[in-house]
Each structure stands twice: as structure tokens, then as C-alpha cells.
Amino acid sequence: MPKIKEPRYHKIAQDIAEAIVNKKFEVGQKLHARSTLAATFGVSAETARKAISVLADLDIVKAVHGSGVEVLSRKKAVEFLAQAKESRNLQETNSEIKKMIAEQKQGLLALDQSFSLLLDQTQRVSQQNPMSPFEFIPKADSSKLNQSIGSLNVWQNTGATIVAILHGDDLILSPGPYANILPGDTIYFIGSDKTVEAMQQFFDSSTTD
Question: Which of 20, 66, 71, 194 has the smallest set of CB atoms within 10 Å of its CB?
């Protein structure tokens, strides 16, 4: 994230104002020529000129032609420094908010990528195991119980292919059309998601009173 950089001349203007506040430069005192100020603060004469212009616009100093710069107001120097500090605080707050937003976006992006990966893995597992069976336990009062798979026409009515029946501790694989579905049995079948709903409706549609 790009950092907001304060102009060099503005920083020099603050340094001069701070010297006035600390009474290093007294009100009414004539400061050195701009070229001397430039050398003092290690900047170009143009940077020093811009810094003096900032202070002159705020009536903190006055450039006197031929005799340097005169200090006008310590109070206004104090106000200028306070305003500059508030401005820096706002900029820092702005930068911090932008940083937080950027981090939040990165977090959301990572979450989105993780979710996409999970979805992709789920789809691949589903493709690799298309015959994973569903399980269903009919209600105890279902009228379809104590009848054979063939007589119920389960596949014709629901689209489900029964691959196993768990009766107590006995698991009957590939039960065939003559196997009866008894109370408490767990039915294992393959089909689509719609088949699950169809099985529930089929076994629960005609329950005994």
C-alpha cells in the first residue's frame, strides 16, 4: 500500500515553527537568509523558500526584502504545529483503515479460495463414488412394511435400487425382489437426491391409523 508522504518543505516549515515555539527564534527576531536556512536544515534554497512561504501565508513570519525573515507570531506557530499534528493523525488513521480493509479483503479472498477448494473436493468425491448408498428407516406404522421389495415395486415407484437391508445385526446384501422389509429395518439404496424424498413419500404416504 503506498504511504502518504509529507512534502519536504512542509516538514521544514514545521521545524522552523517548532524553533519559534521553543523560543529558539524570538518574535521580532530576524532569521537568516533563505540560503542560510537551506544550509541549516540540509535542503535546497527552493525548499527553504517554499517553507518560508507556508509560514508567511499563516502570518507566522514575514519575508523582508534584503534583510531575511522576521518572526511575527509564536501563537500562530503553535496553532500551525497543532494543525499539522492533527493532519498527520488523520493521515495515519486513514492509512490504518485502508490497511485493515486490505487485510479483510485478503481474509475474504482466502475464505473464498478455501470454500472453492472444498466444493471442488466434494464434487470430485461425488464423481469418484457415484454409487454411495443412502440409508432410510421406514416409520414403524408404515403400511409398506412386511411386504417384499418386488411386490412394492420400489424401483418403479421411487427410482431407488435397494442394495442392502440391515435387519437387527444381519446385513443382507443385494436382497433381491423377494426380500421382505420388516419393522425396524434400515434400507440402503442408491439413486439421486430426489430419490431420497421419493422413498420417504412412498413409505410414509399410506400409514396405518
Answer: 66
Handedness of CA 55, 56, 62, 63 (dihedral sign): positive
Q: Identify the CATH number of the domain defined by range 1-130.
A: 1.10.10.10
SS3 for 146? Answer: coil
**What residue ranges do the domains of the chain occupy?**
1-130, 134-204
- Residue keyed to cell 435387519: 167
CA dist 199 and 159 (Å) reads: 8
- pTM, entire model: 0.41
73-95 pLDDT tens trace: 999 999 988 888 877 776 677 77
Intervals of the chain under pLDDT 50: 1-2, 125, 128, 208-209
Distance CA 69, CA 33 (A): 7
Q: What is the pLDDT of residue 205?
A: 77
User: What is the third-level CATH fold of 134-204?
Assistant: Alpha-Beta Plaits (3.30.70)
For residues 184 and 138, the answer to whether their CB atoms sit within 8 Å is no
Mean model confidence pLDDT for the chain: 82
Cell of 145: 412394511
- Based on its alpha-carbon atoms, the radius of gyration of the chain, rounded to whole angstroms, reads 42
137 by DSSP, 3-state: which? coil
Opening angle at CA 156, ends 151 and 162, nearest 5: 75
Q: 185: helix, coil or strand?
A: coil
Query: Given this model, what pLDDT does residue 207 score?
Result: 52
